[in-house]
Amino acid sequence: MTTPSIYSTTPNAHHGQSVASSSCKQRDSDLFTEATFADKSLLLPSGAGDSTNIWTPTVAPKLTRQYAQSIDRGLTDQVAPLALRERIRFVALQAIDEFRYVRTLDIAAACFAERPFAAALAAAQRAMRGMARAGLVQEYVTDRHQHIYALTRAGAQWLNDRTGGEAAASTRHASELTNPAHTLYENFIRTCCEQRGFAAQTERELLDGLKSDSQNPQGGLLRVRTHTGSTKSLRPDVLSQDEYGAVWFEIDRSARGAKRKQDTSLLFSAVGAPLSHAPDWLGDNKAYLRHAVIHAFSPGIMRTAARLLKEGHPIFANPLEAMKRDATIHRACRLVTEHHDAQVFEIWAWRRLAKPTQEWGQLPTVVGYVTLQLLPRWMSSYRSESKERLQAARGWFDENYLPYVRAPQQVAWRQPATALLRGVYNWAELGL
User: What is the DSSP letter of 424?
Assistant: First the structure.
């Protein structure tokens, strides 16, 4: 009996065939050994069959290990997290004690002005939630659905333990408020001025430092003459300064009556005039009204202020030449910056020359500026605003907007520095 050959020199000759004495099918792996070795030898590189050449497999290069970049930990790289929390609480509680009640927006400006707005607001909200849980502040909602925070007795005691001051709780006062929007924006503008490096005071603080007398019965800072010939004293909502003189802020949150409109016109006519009374922090060389700023609640109020300005100050593209041609024009203005939310005007008036020429003893000169702009009300409702409005809105410290829009020829605003590190407070003495 002859056994059939199950091996063949032809590859796959018996692929899939069964052997009589086996139940297994033949596979490609059952091919003749010599044929299989010959086939595999064809896959070797040239010269590999030569005994004098030794073929070695190619070794992949060793990859260098990639390390993650160092993470910026912000202020905690310089201050321990717990110490940083205490510093934030100190600055925030001092602001609440000074203003008696604040919004989260005010704390963002006081503590985190150097950050982008969204990050500053988030940090302020986190800080206020922590202080509320600790019982240092109490949150209230006014009749106009404004969320404000007041200082509790525990918060006042926490502050007094570190400063030795006389901070007092303000919860009773805050609980009786109905619509403190005007006062809140006064305090906000004052905080913005201080973040830019300039001293500022609100109307209430100015009145506390000025005494009323027969010559100044209302405690005003600027004495003006009305169209009837009588004199009148004006007071600002906020008074600050810049490199040239005093900056006068007015917060217009409603349409003005005839009397208030007259006061606005008189204020515009007094730009460049000396102040009748000035606080001590305003030097004698800066006791002049150089800038009037109107913060309007709505575009309509801003348009009304622009109309009042143009009624007393004709607008020209070149006031110098226009006033030289017509000497009856005593004051004029020129629009130097215009946006959908702000306008800046130069105010021109005749001034005597220090060295008169044969032709002119006085010439029109820029005596100051008037800025009309909208209040950044979207900041207090940032979470509920639409994306379209937020994209068109501006108003934080990284832009030319707070505390007011400056003209292109004026010195650019300097960026605020954090109050948690700089030398405003002696943290070592405070134990923080």
Answer: T
Please state, in angstroms and rounded to a whole number, the distance separating the CA atoms of residues 297 and 370.
17
**Residue 337 β-bridge partners:** 344
| Residue 261 to residue 270: CA distance in whole angstroms | 14
User: Of 335, 332, 337, nearest to 365 (Cα)?
Assistant: 332
pTM, 2 dp: 0.80
What per-residue string of b and e applies to 290-326 under the rule 16 or more CB within 10 Å gives b? Answer: bbbbbbbbeeebbebbbebbeeebeebeebeebbeee
List, in order, residues 6 or more apart from 212 with CB less than 8 Å away. 218, 219
* CA 295 – CA 299 distance, rounded (Å): 10
- The single-letter DSSP state of residue 324 is H
Q: Is 50 exceeded by the pLDDT of residue 6?
A: no
Q: Which pair of tokens denotes residue 275?
A: 């102040």
Pull the structure tokens for residue 26. Answer: 């033949």
Average pLDDT for 69-82: 73
Dihedral sign, Cα of residue 12, residue 17, residue 22, residue 23: positive
Q: Where are the alpha helices (DSSP H) in 115-216?
A: 117-133, 153-163, 171-175, 181-195, 203-209
The residue assigned the tokens 């009042």 is 308
Which tens digit of pLDDT belongs to each residue from 316-369?
999 999 999 998 999 999 999 999 999 999 999 999 888 787 677 889 999 999
Alpha-carbon Rg for the chain in angstroms: 39
Question: Is the Cβ–Cβ distance between 383 and 400 less than 8 Å?
Answer: no
- pLDDT for residue 257: 81
CA–CA distance, 392 with 116 (Å, rounded to integer): 16
Structural tokens at position 248: 């006068």
Burial label, 397 (beta-carbon count in 10 A; 0-12, 13-18, 19+): buried
Phi-psi region of 308 (alpha: psi -120 to 50; beta: other; left: phi over 0): alpha
φ, ψ for residue 386, nearest 5 deg: -75, 155
Compute the distance between CA of residue 385 and CA of residue 300 in angstroms, rounded to an integer.
21
Identity of the amino acid at 237 = D
